[in-house]
Amino acid sequence: MTISAKRAPVRVGVVGLGRLGKRHATNLAYRVPGAALLAVCSPLDDELAWARDALPEPRLYAEYDAMLADGDIDAIWLVTPSSLHAEQIVAALAAGKHVFCEKPLSLDVAQCEHVLAFAREHPELQATIGFMRRFDPSYRDAYEKVMAGKIGRPFMIRSQTTDKNDPEGFFVRFAPNSGGIFLDCTVHDIDIARWFFGHARATRAYAAGTVALHEGLRECGDVDNGVGVVEFEGGRLAVFYASRTMAHGNDTHSEIIGTAGALSVGHNPRASRVEIYDESGVRNECTPTFFDRFEEAFLHEAQAFAASIGARGERGASGSESAGATLADALEATRIGLALREALETGTPVVL
Amino acid sequence: MTISAKRAPVRVGVVGLGRLGKRHATNLAYRVPGAALLAVCSPLDDELAWARDALPEPRLYAEYDAMLADGDIDAIWLVTPSSLHAEQIVAALAAGKHVFCEKPLSLDVAQCEHVLAFAREHPELQATIGFMRRFDPSYRDAYEKVMAGKIGRPFMIRSQTTDKNDPEGFFVRFAPNSGGIFLDCTVHDIDIARWFFGHARATRAYAAGTVALHEGLRECGDVDNGVGVVEFEGGRLAVFYASRTMAHGNDTHSEIIGTAGALSVGHNPRASRVEIYDESGVRNECTPTFFDRFEEAFLHEAQAFAASIGARGERGASGSESAGATLADALEATRIGLALREALETGTPVVL
Amino acid sequence: MTISAKRAPVRVGVVGLGRLGKRHATNLAYRVPGAALLAVCSPLDDELAWARDALPEPRLYAEYDAMLADGDIDAIWLVTPSSLHAEQIVAALAAGKHVFCEKPLSLDVAQCEHVLAFAREHPELQATIGFMRRFDPSYRDAYEKVMAGKIGRPFMIRSQTTDKNDPEGFFVRFAPNSGGIFLDCTVHDIDIARWFFGHARATRAYAAGTVALHEGLRECGDVDNGVGVVEFEGGRLAVFYASRTMAHGNDTHSEIIGTAGALSVGHNPRASRVEIYDESGVRNECTPTFFDRFEEAFLHEAQAFAASIGARGERGASGSESAGATLADALEATRIGLALREALETGTPVVL
Amino acid sequence: MTISAKRAPVRVGVVGLGRLGKRHATNLAYRVPGAALLAVCSPLDDELAWARDALPEPRLYAEYDAMLADGDIDAIWLVTPSSLHAEQIVAALAAGKHVFCEKPLSLDVAQCEHVLAFAREHPELQATIGFMRRFDPSYRDAYEKVMAGKIGRPFMIRSQTTDKNDPEGFFVRFAPNSGGIFLDCTVHDIDIARWFFGHARATRAYAAGTVALHEGLRECGDVDNGVGVVEFEGGRLAVFYASRTMAHGNDTHSEIIGTAGALSVGHNPRASRVEIYDESGVRNECTPTFFDRFEEAFLHEAQAFAASIGARGERGASGSESAGATLADALEATRIGLALREALETGTPVVL
């Protein structure tokens, strides 16, 4: 993906410098031809210290508002807590900035709709939600094959997001604010299903789940393993699986089944091309986290965002899907994720 | 699986000589040390002609009753249409014969219960239903690993039975009597789930499905692709998938997920150990039918049945599970399969 | 491979009841339709006791000559020490018996030629050497694909026979009489190469080797890991690898490379269809020994031998290749194996 | 591999802008934190035009000498025809520049030695030859596992470089100047073997080969498929395979076999994580060229070179191996490659 960078680079300000924020900032600083990392924003001193050391002379902001006031910044890149996303996106758009925001848009449908309505009044600005799987080379390859008709009509998707078990159960603390396993994990699979199904509308959702290891989740009605069945218009079906308790690693795997064939993406979550032959048999190690699995996707996502804004300038037109998931996509993912959560709680399918 | 055959062999009569009946008869004739194929029964002349030619001098019967009257026969082996199973089992038991019967026991719960009640009065006779997957070496290997605690506590099973598409849709004709995709195909996955879950009780079932290719199924309310979610007591979950429309072959695949690891049985339905490197990439061919996939399982099943009856004689005791699925197992599989069908029809979970 | 058995069965006498002899005897007794196990011969009481217990009333012989004098025996099945093969084959043919003999025919070319000359005078008798890989379903599948032109013209074969390491190094004791690693292990790969190359003539052989673990081998000039390069007429090449020191299991693997594609047989020596997902990654266990790997091949080999002798009777003609490797094949394998050993010793290629 | 770039970047001039040169230039321009692409050099107008368009304002040189005279350039990056490498490296060192040069150093041992002697007089300058496989993440992973003792003592390496067949046989034209298949392709495998064997000395080389498809190669004594066996001191062995005629893609595969296990790198040259299920079975597509296979390796190689020069400045010391293969490594690879060529021509092992 070699990109010419002859037009003026998009000047980006990254907000939030946790683990994922650091990666985004580094990508934007060094690996995205059409982008320049102009500024970073964090309330934490050590994160700003990291930026000073690791990035090429960025402007440092402790306050989001101060960064928005920086007229040299073209685009805001939000890697902040989910609960802040909606209001920070609105503020960025209001300040005349393009905006990229990590998923989810919001766990609240009304809030999602509010952001959409606001964005609709700013068609000159790009607003993208970070469903990075759409930029993973393997998912992209599968998508192109499906679009080219290689498997006939796709009518079923099975997709899973399963994390390596954290014996400390550190994530249990965040469970109450995560929206539950379907909104936190499955939302990626939902987006994949919608993408491969041509953004067909979901019509019904059912879910079941269990607590296999992390009893603390029961308090907030969450599970550490959940399955969901979502029906889409046109006789399309999706089956999702999310887990926090895998022994072998982060295992993100999707299958797209069509009338003339099927595709699997990432069946074996191999960490590399190495196979080990020893007394345990023949084996490969696995990607430990989504970070390792989607390293390239995060980079391509940033490259596509930068390219899309550059192209906007030239076209004087609104952004295309190639920039990634839109606010509308994010709204739909939230809507379906909430339906799965409700189905899990009630034991009854939810009609959408 | 070398078996000594010093005790008198079990003398078997096979009923029904369709494709599967022929295989059972040939196995019993030549490959099951403790068994002797004494007789076969079929209403069709050409099937009897085949038997005369291919088997070692079997007695030939055109009528089931006449075979039951043959006092030299120890065990009846039913490979007849499903609708006859229940009554033929009862007749065999009444005639004092052990009985092996292909699945399903019956599509009707009351009928299943009637057979169970009848069998309970004949504890000296073995009655086994042919869920052959329990005898597949790979399923058996997985089962032993699970029992040995290798994956901790198993709490989730994903299992599928998917057939290669028959472009003629020949099977559509039989759909009205098959009981639908869940009773016809998923019943095997249900039995596998129950087996791995230590015969835990199912508590709730949900299903969804679609007609991807075979429109003729709509008439009888059936689908060619269906998914089911079944909850079991103790926080255990099963997700099933059945399909009639695979492009690549018969793909029977199960995953057993535990608190300390997971097992997959048959992920890639490879036909052999051959891999082909050509312009299409690297590939392996797939087992075209369940026949090819479970060739060994059918043989081991017969060997286990024969061994079990021999052991009964010695123990003077009732048969063990090692002989295969019991009538009670078959009843439960039918009960769950019916619940999935009802859920598919109503769009509502069925409480069991 | 269901075989009708309407003609009179071939009555077989098995000589040698070690581990492999027991398997052959059991196969012939219970699993080969056209064969009947009439007698066994062993100088060891406990082996005869095993036969009495495990086989269906065989005649028991302690002396080979006595067995040869038994006029009811049609075919002799030799599973004896390699050093006895040549003379026992000649004696069997002289007694008017068909003969199957485990590989190798002999480690001495002159002795091989003597047996061939003798057999040529008895064209009415079948003499087969047990290169069982030709009967493995996967090798057979590959062979048929090659013959059907699926990979164009095959010009290169890579083939390996590698055993799981025995930390006791028990085999070191037998090394002096084994003929060395190439005659003991690689001889199977040589036969496979010749088979796939249409029995083309070998023209030059080179070898190199090392002692990785078993120092005791140095005494007799043997190695525990060896590689060989053999050129065949018509610009065909074979590369062989033999090892006694694998950690993961018996790994028998062959690749056949052609002008339009390639085939691999047994790349991953998986023990079953089970994959294990745990902290070590994703893995499969491996076939521990050639016994486990070639269980089916041994059976099909016996079935083919029996079928071939039956067919001889009908045709009144000489045996076909479908019965397995001929004495001439065995002679060539020995000749090439000896050339590899000489090349290893001298560090110089040997012209054949 | 995120690298801080707080020290002044290494200013690089790239020479040669063919396909591989373009990739190096683009990497250095946009993806290597510690490097700045200052200038490019090519005698071809269209290559300079490409640079003007695709790169961030590089200085453009048509003449190598003019570029060497540019005092702002710290390091020269040679992606020129092999026959120019030796003299261009010497000139770069003479001009006081660090130098990176694509493999091979030279096909002539005396010339290699001359460059080494010259470089020895300039210990303050880094000189690296581009054996990029050392920077491939999977090879790197395997290397670290071997160094950590995971497979015991490595004693055998099997490594292959096989290219997808070009039906046009375009490469045949270049064969006379390529040095033959072992110097052109196998040289990478030789470097890998030396790397994993701790740079042990090779003691003997043997080779054989065949022309499977490209008859034109016979004229210059080359082959399109060749195998080599190289013995190293300490009882270590390497077996190489090179081919120009694969149907399925570029298949670069290495196995490192040790006394306690083995590693395989790239057994299946999968192009992505996608698997396709269709009438041909289950398959994955393959990397078409070494370009696709080693995209990451080229990038990491450049990053390591830049980091190494930066570190030199700080240490005031000579470069470490972490910068990649040294001139001495390249000399040894050439020496072994020439021995394989001689062995192929003479049919006799060459003692090194």
The largest contact between protein chains, plus residue counts on each side, is:
A-D, 36 and 37 residues
Number of domains of chain A: 2
H/E order of the elements of chain A?
A: EHEHEHEHEHEHEHHEEEEEEEHHHE
What is the CATH architecture assignment of the largest domain in chain A? 2-Layer Sandwich
Rg of chain A to the nearest angstrom?
Answer: 20 Å
Which spans of chain A of ≥5 residues are poorly predicted at pLDDT below 50?
1-5, 315-319
N- to C-terminal separation of chain A? 39 Å
The CATH topology of the largest domain in chain A turns out to be Dihydrodipicolinate Reductase, domain 2
**SS field, number of helical segments of chain A:** 11
Looking at the structure, what is the overall shape of chain A? globular
Explain this structure to me?
- Chain A is built from 11 helices and 15 strands.
- The first copy, chain A, has 352 residues and is an alpha/beta fold.
- The first copy, chain A, has 2 domains: 10-132 and 295-324, NAD(P)-binding Rossmann-like Domain (Rossmann fold, 3-Layer(aba) Sandwich); 134-293 and 334-351, 2-Layer Sandwich (Dihydrodipicolinate Reductase, domain 2).
- In chain A, the strands form 3 sheets. A 7-stranded mixed beta sheet of chain A has the order 12-11-7-10-9-8-15.
- In chain A, helix 2 links the parallel strand 2 and strand 3.
- In chain A, helix 4 runs parallel beside helix 5 (109-120), helix 5 (109-120) runs antiparallel to helix 11 and helix 8 packs across helix 11.
- The longest helix of chain A has 21 residues, at 295-315.
- Chains A and D meet through helix 1, helix 6, strand 12 and strand 13 of A and helix 1, helix 6, strand 12 and strand 13 of D.
- Strand 13 (274-278) of chain B pairs antiparallel with strand 12 (261-265) of chain C, so a sheet runs across the interface.
